[in-house]
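Weekly sync notes, structure subgroup
Attendees: PM, AL, DS (notes)

Item 1: joint prediction request from the bench team. They want all two components modeled as one assembly rather than separately. Inputs as received:
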Amino acid sequence: MLKLIISHEARQIIRTGALWSILALLVAAIVFAAWAGGRSIDRQIEGAQAAEAFENGMRNHMRADTEKYEAQVLASGEEYQFAAVRHSPGSGPPQGTNAGAVGAETSLYVTLPPTGLAALSVGQSDIQLNYLPVSMATTLDITKNLELENPINLATGSFDIAFVVIFLLPIFILAMSYDLLSSEKERGTLAMILAHPISIRELMASKIISRAAIMLAVVLGFGIIALLTVGTGLDTADTWLRFGLWMVATLLYSAFWFALAVLVNVYGKNSAANGTVLAGIWLILVVIVPQLVSMFATTVYPTPSRMELTIAARNAQTEAEKNFMAKLDEYYYDHLEFVPEGKGKAMDFLTLSQANNNSIEKAIRPLYDGFQDQLNKQEELVQRFQYLSPAIMMQLALNEVSGTSADRYEFFLNQVYSFHDEWKEYFSTKFLQRYPLKPADYDNFPDFSYEEQPFSVVMARLVPSLLGMLILFLGVVLVPFIALRKYQVAAR
Amino acid sequence: MITSIARKEFAEIVRDGRFKWTAAIMVLLLLTAMLAGFQKYTTAMRIQQAAQAGTNQQWLDQGDKNPHSAAHYGNYAFKPAGPLSYFDNGISNYTGTAVFMEAHKQNFAIGRPASDQSAIARFGDLSGANILQLLLPLLIIFLGFTAFSGERESGTLRQVMSMGVTNRQLLWGKALGVGTAVMIVVLPCIVIGAIALSMAGSVDHAEGMGTRIAALSVAYLMYAGIFVFLTIAVSAMTKHARTTLMVLVGFWAFTGFLMPKAASEISKFTDPTPAFGKWMADMRAHQIRGIDGVPPFVKFAKYTKEVFKEYGVDTVADLPMYFVAVRLQKLEEYDYPVFDQHYGMIRDAYAAQRKVQDRLGLLAPTLPLRSISMALSGTDLIQHVKFMTDAETYRRNMVVKMNDYLSKAAVDLNATSSSSNYMRADEEVFAIVPPFVFEPPALNSMMAEHRNNFILLALWLAAAIGLAIFATNRISMERN
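Output from the run, pasted for the record:
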């Protein structure tokens, strides 16, 4: 009997023009979102490649100079020498022999590679810079750059598949099911159907199953198509594992909205009233609660002020500099190119400027660490509010699964910091030893490769959101299951 | 007749329990949003003013040093919050709040609040503007969607028409009834907001606060009017109340949620923002090879020859100005056109994107309203661009002043190559650079910039009224 009703419902849905247009809109939104998400990731990759090519070009230029110099030395039998830092071109050993110059004036771009699903949920990746220049500059110089994007677009947010799933899919689900029982009741067919040997629960279940099947076929089908067109790393298990989790989240989220439609339907109001209530609930859960939570979080637990931090850091920096300046010719400290060529002294300047960089970094580091601590505490508190809305849980889950969360970025940053130390160590040691860099040394410079977060970490952050949605769904589905017994079949 | 129809419509709405609930929720949200916004605004202003005063003092207290080194030490420009940012925070969460102004480099603003907030912040701010842009239309739809289709379903439409009421009277009566009900919700908030505003007026001396509020009110009233008439039009055209609701809610989601994002993606396609890495690499390469293909050091060699000729000297030592300082300033100036071109490219891309999005307002009235609202609240792109331009002008002036001073005060250093004999300046010298002051863009120019958005809103309103007239004219006894 259930099968019969389901196939009957499915046939009915398929023949209803309105539902076809809803599905067509959904498909159009998915296609548009996949296109937009793909473009966003392409742009990040293009930026990373251009930056890397430029810096490698600078370094290769230095290397080419040392190759020329090496050949010249070999031919003349001179000694291969170390060059002091200077900016205007001249004769003698090239700058490429100076490890300090190479390590400070060229950077190595380190990249956070997108996961296979990054194009599906842009998440926080549009406000982070996923490629950072590591040089002998301070960590603050390394992390101060931001990806370029129109702030209007950032404030509006991306039209990615996560947006389609979180914002639009519920609307489509509700549009398909807001009048599940009420329309039959209004047409007077409900009493007729229930005269057959079928319970109202079975009828409801079959209506939901037929609609959910169609909706999920579309979401899954086009989700896979989107993944195949804009996803990357399709040959890795990681991508498919992530996609599987993505689908689980989507399933739970959709189930919640279907259950909500049923819940509203069992109260026996007319279709228009059901529609009003459901549209209102959508607005509250998807828009108002997240915005309220965000407002609450930033009002009650305000982010510490960057402006105050800047002032404090500058005071620390000035202090560090003042102590240093007592011994230094500060003018030349800023302009190494004017250091007269000669023995000893000129080299001291780079040494000292590096030392100064370090002292500045040491002075302001605690301030930034304290700031970061405060931010983390706030973030933790905000995370707890996610259970107030399935939309928040869903957004956090999708960002996590797609590797576009702030958490993964911090994981990346920590690797960047230790690589920065490695880079500084390598070049400053060579520089302090006045070791003349040879072309062959260029192959042995420190290199960076991102080590992915263990999957258990991702899961640990994901599970609360998924569980939250499951519990919410069960809560919502239980009420109508009980309440359906009292459903008034005929209009009074 | 119109008033009695309006009275009936109004009474029906107000007596409905749903109205009381939605109205109460909306008023509560509006007040909460304004209060929280106001609290944030006063805190932000206090911090900004203290920070700007602090950094100005740091500039003076940086310790005796070479003037050019002082230019390297630089100064910060801190961005004040927009005068009505507690009503509409606009793009403020996504623009940097501090610009480091230093020798040789033009910098982007750093300290973007969104970078320090959790992912939840991406759902947007619950601001007065957001509530009026998104919740108010839904409230109007809820209150008005049964205006015709509800009466049609219950059969009272035929009755009313049989009493000789004209279609026109019906339309205006219903519009008036729905409009009054909406006003009952919104007006108290506006009054409270205005009172709060007049009490808090001393925080910021923004230009034309009255004009801003008046223009904002006009824009939002037009927006509300669009939804009132669209609701009545759709209600008159559809047979069932549930269809009316579906169509209107669909349109609401389209204009309020789907179109802003779609418009943003479309504008990114028509006028792409360069990726940071690509942009940076291009600019650095351009700096190295020179704006005209002549590298800076070649340019400077040529310039040196000219200067020698002009003063009739053969060595730097004979020049009447400290030539190292001249060189520093020249190198600075060679970079100006490169910065202008590359930073200008971004500015232009953003402006073009904004125009594209505004034009897509033809499809969605929320877009022009959003632009107007941000602009008048002083939290839009125009405001930010002006801030960045002011900071760059300040930076260039600061560096010129320091290098100039050095070139005049350290002439005797030309003759010596000794680095121990360098020039030192103190607080008095640093004081020749005046403190940074941000001049917000003039209200007139903002209004002019958004004239098209006002026109778009007016067009939408006219179209909505036209549609409502057309739809109500079609109603006849026979077909109901």
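Discussion: The mean pLDDT of chain B is 88.
Action: AL to compare against the crosslinking data before next sync.
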